[in-house]
Amino acid sequence: MAQVIAAVLAAVLLLIAGIFLGRLVFPVAPSTPSTTSAEAGFARDMQVHHQQAIEMSTIIREKSDNEEIRTLAYDIATSQGQQAGQMFGWLTMWNLAQASAEPSMTWMMQPTLDGTPSDMGSASMSAMTMLGMATFEQMQTLKASTDGADAMFLELMIAHHAGGVEMAQALLERSTNEVVTSLANKMVLTQKSEITYMNELLSAI
Amino acid sequence: MKPRDSESPVPPAARKDLTVKQRRAESRAVKVAALKKKQAAEKRNRLIGIVTGIVAAVGVLALIIAVVVTNGTPKVSPDAIEINGLQNYPDTIAGHVEGAVEYAQSPPAGGEHAAAWLNCGIYTEPVPNENAVHALEHGAVWVTYNPDQVTGDDLKALQDSVPSTYSVLSPMPDLQSPVTISAWANQVELDGVDDPRLQDFVDKFWQAGDSPEPGASCSGGVDAPGRIA
To answer: N or C: more exposed end of chain A, with fewer CB within 10 A?
Structure first.
C-alpha cells in the first residue's frame, strides 16, 4: 500500500514539475493578427496612402510661398511619416511580411464585425482612386504647376484625407485590436479636422 | 575434487556425524542471515527512496518559485499609474483657428489652436497659448511655473527635470501653483519643483494618453521670444 501511495505521489510531483518546466521553457505568447487580417491589410495599405501624402506635402512645401500651406505640409509630412513607422513596426512585431500576398484593399472586402457585407462593390472598381489617392498624372501636374499649385495641392489633399478617413473607418468596423483601433481613431479625428481647415484655406485663395 | 557444500561450518569429513538438532540449527542460522540481509536491503532502499523524494520535492518547489518570480514582476503600464490631484478634461476639442482663443482652463490643456505649433523647448518668457496648445496636440507636455515662486536653483532644477524633447517649459505669471504640468486633456498642479508627480505625469502622458497626434513634429514650427533651449 505504501508503495502505491509513493508511486502516485511521485507521478503527481512529476506532472507538476513538467507543467512548470514547460511554462518556463515555452512561455505562451498572445496571438497576433494574420497576414490576411484587416489589421495587416490596413497597416500595409495605409502606409502606401501616407507615403503619397508625404510626397504631395514635400512638393508643395518646396514650391509654395503661402506660409500656412507650407506649415500644414510640414505637419502632414512629419506626422504621417511617424504613423507609417508605427504601422511598419506592427507588421514586424506580428512576424508578417511588409508585402501583401493579396491585392491592396482586399481586406476591405471582408464583412464587418457585426456581419454586414462590405459595401466596396465589385473588385474591378479602381480601389485606389476611390480612396482618394492621386493618379500618376495628377502628381506630375502638381510637380509642374506654378500659380495653381496651392489650390491643386489643397484639392488633392482634401480628397486624399477623405479617402484616408474611409480606410480608417473600414478598419474600425472590422477590428477590436486596441493598438490598431486607437491609431485609426486618431487618424479619423485629425484628418477630419484638417479637411475643415483645408477647406477654409482653399476658400481664402 | 572440490567438496560439494564447502560453506558448511562443519568440516566435510564430519558431516555425516551431525545430529538432526545440529542440522536444524544450521538451516535456521542460514535463514536468519538471509532475513537480516533482506532487512538491511529494505532499510537501504527506504533510505534511498526518502532521499530521492526529498530531492524531487525540493526540485519541484524550486521550479514553482522560478516560474512565479519570472512571471510575477509587475509591468507598470501607463494606464495603471495613479496621480493624486489629476484633472482630466474629456470634452476637449481640437481644430485650427485664427486669432485668440478663450480656453476652459489656465494653463490650457487643449482646445482649438493656431495652425502653427510652438517649437518644444525651454522659454524664459510667457508663450502664446494658441501655439502651445498645438504642441500639446502633438503629444508634448507643457510645464508652466510661477516666476515669482520658482527662481534661481529651483528654476535650474526644473529645467533639468523636464524631458529633452516634446516638452515646453515656460513661465506663467499669476499661476495658482508653483508648477503645473499639462498634456492634452490632462493636467495636475504640483507642490513645487521636487514634486514626484511630475515624473509620474510624464510617464503617463508624454507622447501618449489622449493627445490626438502623438509623434507629429514638435520642431519646424514657430519659436516664441525668450527661447534658451
So the answer is: N
Checking if the pLDDT of B73 tops 90, the result is no
Centroid of chain to Cα B75: 4
Q: Report which of B144, B154, B165 is spatially closest to residue B229, judged by C-alpha positions.
A: B165
Rounded to a whole number of angstroms, the CA Rg of chain B reads 43
How far is the C-alpha of A163 from the C-alpha of A173, rounded, in Å? 15
Overall average pLDDT of the B152-157 stretch: 97
Q: Is there a contact between B126 and B169 (Cβ–Cβ < 8 Å)?
A: no
Chain A interface mutation, best of B55, B61, B63, B119, highest count of A Cβ atoms under 10 Å: B63
Asked whether the beta carbons of residue B49 and residue A20 sit closer than 8 angstroms, the reply is: no
Distance CA A55, CA A153 (A): 11
Query: Nearest CA of chain A to the CA of B6: how many Å?
Result: 39
Q: What is the edge-to-edge ordering of all strands in the sheet holding B179-183?
A: B87-88, B186-190, B179-183, B141-145, B167-171, B121-122
Q: Residue B63's pLDDT is what?
A: 82
Over the stretch B10-25, which tens digit does the pLDDT of each residue have?
A: 666 565 567 888 888 8
Given the DSSP bridges, would you call strands B186-190 and B179-183 parallel, antiparallel or unpaired? antiparallel
The C-alpha atoms of residue A171 and residue A49 are separated, in whole angstroms, by 14
Residues of A in contact with B53 (CB under 8 A): 6, 9-10
Query: Distance, in angstroms, between B65 CA and closest chain A CA?
Result: 9
CA distance A79 to chain B (A): 4
End-to-end CA distance of chain A: 97
Distance CA A119, CA B177 (A): 55
Tens-digit pLDDT profile for chain A (205 aa)? 888 888 888 788 888 888 888 777 777 777 899 999 999 999 999 999 999 999 999 999 999 999 999 999 999 999 999 999 999 999 999 999 998 888 889 999 999 999 888 876 655 446 666 699 999 899 999 999 999 999 999 999 999 999 999 999 999 999 999 999 999 999 999 999 999 999 999 999 9
**The three three-digit cell numbers of residue B185, written as one number:** 486633456
Q: Which residues of B108-119 are buried (b: 16+ CB within 10 A; e: fewer)?
A: bbbbbbbbbbbb
Would the CB atoms of A189 and B56 count as touching at under 8 Å? Answer: no
